């Protein structure tokens, strides 16, 4: 009986020691980076946005209009993403959520990209979309894909590369919620081939097993 009591106390002691490690962690970043400064007078940002005095808040701080309106699709990839996040709906600050409307032309796509700070859940309002995401290297880079019809829902886990492609014969519209006030977006092709300054073509040639001239041609496109 005494041994059981000692074992129980030992487990409790272990939990007491490890619990602070579980609940005490750095806050998740709300932008790409936040450089520390020693003098607060030199600081211009916080992790997120400065907060308005709550007594000065109005209904307009929590309101965004016009998301029902179709957006023109004129770019090379054939889609238009309208984001509703903390930058244009300030009431989202600290709430950990945002929204996008995506308009797709025929054969249009939201090209392979990732959100470094958010999981995304998408619902298709109209049209037909081929959607999918690719798992991490440790999982073998498996492709998870579905063809969505009106009313279908698909989830893209945080940080994983994903895409949507309009495979229907008419324009498509989707709405998606993201689990961050500022989820960020990294479009793979633009990032790799359109960085500023450009990545050394020899680096990309080796990585993609391409001729350096092909890489430079791709960089010129982005």
TrEMBL record:
<dbReference type="InterPro" id="IPR011051">
    <property type="entry name" value="RmlC_Cupin_sf"/>
</dbReference>
<keyword id="KW-1015">Disulfide bond</keyword>
<dbReference type="GO" id="GO:0048046">
    <property type="term" value="C:apoplast"/>
</dbReference>
<dbReference type="Pfam" id="PF00190">
    <property type="entry name" value="Cupin_1"/>
</dbReference>
<keyword id="KW-0732">Signal</keyword>
<comment type="similarity">
    <text>Belongs to the germin family.</text>
</comment>
<protein>
    <recommendedName>
        <fullName>Germin-like protein</fullName>
    </recommendedName>
</protein>
<feature type="binding site">
    <location>
        <position position="120"/>
    </location>
    <ligand>
        <name>Mn(2+)</name>
    </ligand>
</feature>
<dbReference type="InterPro" id="IPR001929">
    <property type="entry name" value="Germin"/>
</dbReference>
<dbReference type="InterPro" id="IPR019780">
    <property type="entry name" value="Germin_Mn-BS"/>
</dbReference>
<keyword id="KW-0479">Metal-binding</keyword>
<feature type="signal peptide">
    <location>
        <begin position="1"/>
        <end position="24"/>
    </location>
</feature>
<feature type="binding site">
    <location>
        <position position="113"/>
    </location>
    <ligand>
        <name>Mn(2+)</name>
    </ligand>
</feature>
<keyword id="KW-0464">Manganese</keyword>
<feature type="binding site">
    <location>
        <position position="120"/>
    </location>
    <ligand>
        <name>oxalate</name>
    </ligand>
</feature>
<feature type="binding site">
    <location>
        <position position="110"/>
    </location>
    <ligand>
        <name>oxalate</name>
    </ligand>
</feature>
<keyword id="KW-0964">Secreted</keyword>
<feature type="binding site">
    <location>
        <position position="115"/>
    </location>
    <ligand>
        <name>oxalate</name>
    </ligand>
</feature>
<comment type="function">
    <text>May play a role in plant defense. Probably has no oxalate oxidase activity even if the active site is conserved.</text>
</comment>
<dbReference type="InterPro" id="IPR014710">
    <property type="entry name" value="RmlC-like_jellyroll"/>
</dbReference>
<feature type="binding site">
    <location>
        <position position="162"/>
    </location>
    <ligand>
        <name>Mn(2+)</name>
    </ligand>
</feature>
<feature type="domain" description="Cupin type-1">
    <location>
        <begin position="65"/>
        <end position="216"/>
    </location>
</feature>
<dbReference type="GO" id="GO:0030145">
    <property type="term" value="F:manganese ion binding"/>
</dbReference>
<feature type="binding site">
    <location>
        <position position="115"/>
    </location>
    <ligand>
        <name>Mn(2+)</name>
    </ligand>
</feature>
<keyword id="KW-0325">Glycoprotein</keyword>
<dbReference type="InterPro" id="IPR006045">
    <property type="entry name" value="Cupin_1"/>
</dbReference>
<keyword id="KW-0052">Apoplast</keyword>
<feature type="disulfide bond">
    <location>
        <begin position="34"/>
        <end position="51"/>
    </location>
</feature>
């Amino acid at each position: 009986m005494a041994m059981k009591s000692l074992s129980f106390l030992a487990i409790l002691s272990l939990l007491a020691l490890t619990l602070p490690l579980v609940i005490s962690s750095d806050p998740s970043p709300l932008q790409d980076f936040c450089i520390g400064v020693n003098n607060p007078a030199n600081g211009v940002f916080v992790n997120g946005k400065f907060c308005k005095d709550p007594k000065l808040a109005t209904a307009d701080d929590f309101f965004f209009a016009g998301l029902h309106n179709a957006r023109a699709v004129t770019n090379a990839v054939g889609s238009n993403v309208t984001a509703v996040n903390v930058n244009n709906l300030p009431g989202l600050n600290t709430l950990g959520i945002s929204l996008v409307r995506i308009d797709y032309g025929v054969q249009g796509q939201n090209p392979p990209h990732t959100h470094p700070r958010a999981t995304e859940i998408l619902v298709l309002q109209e049209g037909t979309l081929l959607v999918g995401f690719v798992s991490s290297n440790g999982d073998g880079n498996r492709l998870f894909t579905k063809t969505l019809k009106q009313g279908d829902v698909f989830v893209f886990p945080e940080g994983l590369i994903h895409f949507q492609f309009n495979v229907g014969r008419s324009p498509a519209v989707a709405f998606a919620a993201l689990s961050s006030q500022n989820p960020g977006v990294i479009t793979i092709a633009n990032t790799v081939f359109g960085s500023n300054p450009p990545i050394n073509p020899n680096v990309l040639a080796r990585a993609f097993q391409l001729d350096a001239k092909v890489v430079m041609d791709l960089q010129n496109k982005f």
